[in-house]
Design brief:
Layout: H1 4-22, E1 28-30, H2 43-51, E2 56-58, H3 69-72
Parallel strand pairs: 1-2
Amino acid sequence: DVVGISGCSKVMNNLLNQIQIHKIDFVVVNGENADQTGVGLKKKICEDLFKCGENVITTGNHVWDQKETVKFIDEDDRLLRPDNLIKGQPGKRYDNYK
């Protein structure tokens, strides 16, 4: 669970190196608390995390705490919404990951 600025900074500064050292094939990060406020996430954060080697970002009950998420969660199959949301909610579930 990546939380706030400190969590994002740690991942962004270290993950690519850890992937190489440990020969990691697939990285899953829970990013629902990655925003600087500690709840929700924004498009820029997702883009930065994907550049660092994450394959998918999962979310949870804080996925909508940053309202802009509703606008971009449908744009990228690597940003996954909780599976137990009411049908018709924006975003892709894990079984839609390509």
